[in-house]
Amino acid sequence: MxxxxxxxxGGHLDALAKIVLNxxxxxxxxxxxxVHAQENLPRPIIYGLPPTLLYVHPDEQIDIIKAxxxxxxxxxxxxxxxxxxxxxxxxxxSPAQFVQVFDALETIPPGGAPRDGAEDTDxxxxxxxxxxxxxxxxxxxxxTVQDDSTVTYYFIHDGLVKPRQN
Length: 166
Fold this sequence. Notes:
By secondary structure, this protein is an alpha+beta fold. The chain has a single domain (12-113, 124-157), classed as Trna Endonuclease, Chain: A, domain 1, CATH 3.40.1350.10. The protein is built from 3 helices and 5 strands; from the N terminus they run H-E-E-H-E-H-E-E. The longest helix is centred in the N-terminal third of the chain and has 16 residues, at 12-27. Mean pLDDT is 81; it is low at 1-8 and 115-121.
């Protein structure tokens, strides 16, 4: 069920948020998706929990492979709450507008503290954990809505991020 809290009535931003919420919950199986509206945000932002981990930092990926080789078992990779910024394809957002959004957001959405059992306490200082939870950099999914209600998602990071190597 979609939960929309404290949105101004009407307007295209409200409609974009509803389209993206519907897409996340019904097409991508996100849980707990909510609209996060606060005074210092220029527009509504969505947050929720995807069914699987969406992003692995390139350095974290290398450290996970090393840890799995040393441990001879898989490293748990539970999903994390993610921010989602709904925009329309015709909108032109400036870098200053993205900075304003990132400045208003915390690294982790509300309720994003690690769940019991989600972290392996045996290797609390494992190198790969430096990219998890509050230690990760600020990022959000840019949800670009087209006129036919197709939604395309792109990760946007606050600052520079090393590109992936294939």
